Amino acid sequence: MSDKLKSDTPVSGDKKPAVSRRELLSFGAYGLTGAALSSLVSASEKDRPNSPHFEPKAKRVIHICLMGGMSHLDSFDYKPELGKLHGKELQYDERPATFFNRIGLIRKNDWAFKQHGESGLWVSDLFPHLATVADDLTVINSMVADSANHTPATFQQNTGFQLNGFPVMGSWISYGLGAETEDLPAYVVLPDARGYPAGGTINWSNGFLPSVYQGVAFNSQGTPIPDLFPPKGMAAGTDLSSRKLLAEMNQDDLTRYGTEDALLARIRSHELAARMQLTVPEVTGLGSETEATREMYGLNNEPTADFGKNCLLSRRLLEKGVRFVQIISGGSFGSPRINWDGHENMVKNHNREAMRIDQPVAALIKDLKQRSMLEDTLILFTTEFGRTPYTQAGDGELGTGRDHNMYGFSVFMTGAGLKPGMTFGETDELGWKSVQDQVHWYDFHATVLHLLGMDHERLTFYHNGIERRLTNVHGNVVKGVLA
Predict the structure, then answer these.
(1) Is residue 477 part of a domain?
(2) Which of 188, 324, 454, 457 is the most exposed place for a label (fewest CB within 10 A)?
(3) Where in the sequence is the domain holding 181, given as residue range(s)?
C-alpha cells in the first residue's frame, strides 16, 4: 500500500474540530483584505465561464475509472462467434497491432452472457449486481482509442490527449461550472485503497487551467486528508494567530507580486482547508448511515468494503455540493498487478477486480435513483481500452490472458438525459474492431459536456497562443444515446 494511503488515525463524523465554528468564521477578519479579496473574486470570474451554455440535463458527475483495460468481450459486448471459433487461428487479412504482439488463438468469453431486465440488455456473469440495474444502463460498445499503451491511453481517456500536461475532464467541468459549495472542492478524487494508479496525481491534474480546478484526492483509508487539522495539543488561540500571520504574509505577497495564479490558488486552498475542518469529518463519517445502506454497498464484506465506502462517500459528497467525483478502480502496474490488466489470466484478474466493484456500483445507482438524485446526476463507467478476442500467447497457443485492444471496447453511462437500457454501436463479429457508430474519446467528452449544458467547442481556455479545449479540434455529440 502506498504511504500516501496509510494512516493510523481514524476519522468519524463526530470528531471535534480543532477550533470552534465561531473561531473559524472569525478567521475572515484576519483573512484577505478587501482589495485582495476583490482581486481573487475578479480573477475567479475572469478565469471561469459564468454559466452553462444551454439548459443542462445533469449538474454533477461521478466518474468510475477502471485502470488497466476491462475486457468488453467478458462484460457487455456479447460475441457468440467467439464460442464457435474458440481455439482457432485468426483469419484477418490485417495483422492486429497489439502491445506485446503475441497473437495466440481465439478465446471464447470466460463468463456466460444473459439478457437482463425489460430491455434485454446483455450483461455477463462477471457483473451479477450490475445486471440487476441493466434497464438503467446506456452501454457504448463501439469505443475506440488512439493508443494501446496504458499511460497515453489513460491520459486520453481523462484529457483527450495522449501526452500529459493537459487538464483532465473533472478539471474542465469544474472550470466550466464551478462548485455548488464553498466548503468542499468542486472536484474530488477517491483513489483505490491499494494504491495510486500509474502516474499518481497527474491523473487528476488541472494542467494549464488555474490551479483551483485540480482534483483533490481523499485518502481511501484512515484520515481522509493529511494535515488538515492542527497538531494535537495546539491551543485554538495559537492556531488562530498562525492563520492571522499567514493572511498578513499572503497580503504582502499580493501587494508585491500581484494576482499570480499560484499565489491565488495557495490563498484559496488555505481558506478552503479552514472550512473543510468542519465539513470533512461530517461528510466522511458514515456513522449516520443505516445498517441497510451499509449492507447494500458491501461495507460489511472484506472484498467490497473499500470500494463500497468510496461509492457511498461519493453520494454524500454530491449531497454536499461537490460537482465531480472520480472513483478509481485499480492501482499501479508491475508485479503483482492490482488493476484490470489481465495479460496472464483473465479469470483470476477480472474475478478479483469485479468482485470489489460490482455490488458497490450497482448500489450507488440504486441509491441515487431512490433518492431522485439520478435525475440530475451523470455516472460514467470507463476504462482506457478493451482486450483482444485472441489470447496473448505464441502462434498456435491458447493462452488464458488477453492483450490490449484500442480498436473497440465498451463503457457505460447512466443518469440524466440518457436513453436507458440500451446499447449503442457495434464491434465486428469477434469484438476486435468498432464497425458501426464508432465513438472516440473526443465524442464521449463532447457528449458528457453536452449533458452538463456546455458546448464542447465553446468551453475553451487560452494557452500558449491556442484556444484549448477538452476535445482538441475534434468531437461530435453522440446523439443516439440522448433521451
Answers:
(1) yes
(2) 457
(3) 52-222+286-481
